[in-house]
Amino acid sequence: MAKIAISLCGEGRGHATRICTLVEHLERNHDILIFTSADAFEFLSQRFSDDRGRVRVSEIPGIVFQYSGGRLDVMRSIAVGLDYQARLLGPLVDRLIRELEEFDADLAVTDFEPALPRAAARRGIPLVSIDHQHFLLAYDLRSLPPLMQWNAWLIGHAVWMYVAEATDTVVSAFFRSPLRRGWEHVVQVGPLLRREITRARPRDDGFLISYLRRHTPFDVLSTLADCGLPVRVYGLGEREPIGNASFHAIDEHRFVEDLAGCRAMISAAGNQLIGEALHLGKPMLLLPERAHAEQLMNSHFLSGMGCGDFILLEDVTPERVQVFLQGLDRFAPSLAAVAGQMDGMPEVVRVIEHRLLQPLAETPAAVESWPPD
Questions:
Q1: Are residues 295 and 200 in contact, defined by beta-carbon separation less than 8 angstroms?
Q2: For a Cys-Cys bond, which of 15, 21, 106, 292 suits 8, CB 3.0-4.6 Å?
């Protein structure tokens, strides 16, 4: 039995879902200490609140995306990130060093959180980085439009600042791409899927499912409500129905049941949710925000796979939604090729167990540097 410290970004539920699944695999044999914030802290502290003793969840300050007028405010988000780095990150690293010492951690695992990697380095603890964002550094992105390549280069600076060096780097993504020179040591895996997803039996019960971010414009909700099929909307909380759209609180079991039973998904473009839908063979219409570069890239990769389409959240119209719904059959061949094949969890557990057996005996041959060649 080992002691593993895990940190993760608290924004949204993708990181929390991924790490929750990983912890459920690891807690059988190891003690786990989780550091996180915001949505992820709320979700994980409830999920692991039954005094089983193997898992403890500790709240830390984190960075949260900023919105203005219902849209992602990139400049405010950057300002909040810089303020976090200037005022909070140093004291937080000092705190985590003390907690790692008290916990006597054997290994650190991070999912796009900046404090634990720094604390682990100062304590001499091996670090496994498992996230989606490292595709911005490790993947050859020349298949993307030029502006997106530039955005990837720019955002990659932030990824590099989060985790400058790890003993092992794992990229969890629903898509694959050739690795850049200098990043050949990266392990590529699919999304880390919860057991409910891998055990679910997909079917078509004649409704749509939608997972939307809290600042989704009302015009989008109105368009979905009038699309001609029942729509079950998650992510916005419970509220009165609008036309054919019903609104549901997040319930993990019900959401998985609805995802398995839907005809198609119309959703924000998060990596984890896309991977779950692909595993169940569901066609998708993604609604990335214009200012959210990562979601735009996810949308382009999904479209390139032939498993769905996308519309900018700000450009949604009834006509474009109907084009998607009337052409669902065109996605069937590509979906059949990936359905049931997406789970990256077994490979991630293998990486962690290998590192526990050989903590520092093996390190990546390549040096993670920025900017990439």
A1: no
A2: 15
Nearest to 97 by CA among 75, 77, 116, 73: 116
- Pick the residue with more confidence: 363 or 146? 146
Phi, psi of 275 (to 5 degrees): -60, -40
- In whole angstroms, give the CA distance from residue 172 to residue 347: 10
| Predicted local distance difference test score (pLDDT) of residue 79 | 73
- Identify the CA nearest to 149 among candidates 137, 163, 161, 131: 137
> Which amino acid is located at 242 in the chain?
I
pLDDT at 67: 62
Strands (E), 177-316: 187-189, 208-211, 231-234, 245-248, 264-267, 284-286, 308-310
Question: Which pair of structure tokens corresponds to residue 267?
Answer: 């959703």
Sheet of strand 31-36: strand arrangement? 55-59, 31-36, 3-8, 107-111, 127-131, 168-172, 187-189
- CA 311 from chain centre, in angstroms, equals 20
Domains of the chain and CATH, by start? 3-192+344-357 (3.40.50.2000), 195-338 (3.40.50.2000)
Output the DSSP codes for 111-127. ES-SHHHHHHHHHT--E
